[in-house]
Amino acid sequence: MTENSRTMIFCFLSRTVQLASASSLLGRLLCSASTNKPVLTLFTKKPCPLCDEAKEALEPYKRRFILQEVDITLPENSAWYHKYKYDIPVFHLNGRFLMKHQVDIQKFEDQLTKLEMHNDGNH
């Protein structure tokens, strides 16, 4: 992701919503520090019915992670477009590739649990 990306991250904190620009280091730090949740990045475009299906599959887990959507068709995301244009939906978990084309629930749950255990051990 480029530093001038317009991607937005939503942080839901005790009945308030914080909106931070993903290009803002302070915004990313505030979100992750205040929620201590892993960030699941969805590389997508509009329309993307497979992306919609993937988000539905992840619905039961939504309180356990922060969803960050990156529209690969935006000019500032052209590197992601060239990398993933034939593969969306693509997911990264905490900045690392996790899965593409469809949600692998077992893989997602395993990796999410590992991150949660790691985070719990650090606090």
UniProtKB/TrEMBL annotation:
Coiled coil: none annotated. Pfam families: Glrx-like (PF05768). InterPro entries: Glutaredoxin-like (IPR008554), Glutaredoxin-like_YDR286C (IPR052565), Thioredoxin-like_sf (IPR036249). Residues 1-22 form the signal peptide. Keywords: Electron transport, Signal, Transport. Belongs to the glutaredoxin family. This is Glutaredoxin-like protein.
